[in-house]
Amino acid sequence: MSYIKNIDHEKALSLAGQVSVQPGQIVSRTLAQNGAVSVTLFAFDKGEEISAHDSTGDAMVYVLEGTGSFTVDGKVYECKAGEALVMPAKKPHSVYAQESFKMLLTVVFPTEQSE
After folding, report:
1. pLDDT at residue number 114
2. Which residues contact 20 (CB under 8 A, 6 or more apart)?
């Protein structure tokens, strides 16, 4: 059984190369999804956004290419390729693409053992 899907196993590869920017779209590719964790690759075209929302888990973004603008609880953070940002659980956050960019999103959800 594979816990990580939609990506080659036992092969060195570029994560940024696993998702493509499409005109006027946000493209996503889910790599893992269960009650404890969610791992998703995203490619945003310039001007695309995910409006403010919150999550029951801590969300960490890692920018793979370009620069993304992230608003967390009213404060704006700009992250460029190679940078990460943790957006704490239950704090509203949004994403905006000032330019085309790609990111890896990892969300770690609370479990009964950690509550």
Report:
1. 47
2. 27, 43
